[in-house]
Amino acid sequence: MPPTAAHTLPTKADSPRSEFNRGIKNCLPVLVGMIPFALILGVQGAQKGMSVLEMPLMTGLNFAGGSEFAAVGLWGNPLPVLLIIAVTFMINTRHILMGAALTPYMRHLPLKKALPALFFMTDESWAMGIADANRRKARGLPAFSLAYYMGVSLTLYVMWVAFTALGAAVGPAFGDVEALGFGMAFPAVFLVLLRGMWKGFRAARPWLVSLAVAALVSLLGEGAWYVPAGAAAGLIAAYFWSAEA
Asked: Transmembrane region positions (predicted)?
């Protein structure tokens, strides 16, 4: 993939600071889709009764957009705490798989660095970190750049928490923001990130199985069961196809 203004490639001379700055620069296009989504979440939370303090506490401690939208959707009085915890856990199970995929790149890191890196991991920073590691490996460089990954992750984290808080602050002044169609922002961004990891149809078959099963379960049932169903189906498909290779 050729370098562009929004997608720079590493060189052997890059220092940790320049790698960190490269991560910030590369994730700027992602923020175009992320910031409206964060504002929408904040506005929805405020309209459900969440305060300006509660919103950044939730998004800062549970840095995972999908489960946060689910939690806001369930928010009410009385607060269904156990239901919110259960649904959040189901949706966030994908982070187990994402963390496992990062493990080969982070084996050399001490826990004091690896654990914060995993805490700040989200869909976009995970995809960008994996894609960058593959590019570095192709150029003969050490595969994983922690400084680059943290530049991406911390930028996304700070902006997400800040703009969800801003959305909560201005939320009472807005009507139904879902009608504006901003809900497609994150899926569109993540599809672009997945395109950077595309290695052909054969390698992507588990993705397609996971997508098909998740879509089917979503159509036939209620709740967030489509998330673990899609993840399990993708893992099973990957296991059998890898056994054939």
From this structure: 23-43, 146-171, 177-196, 208-241
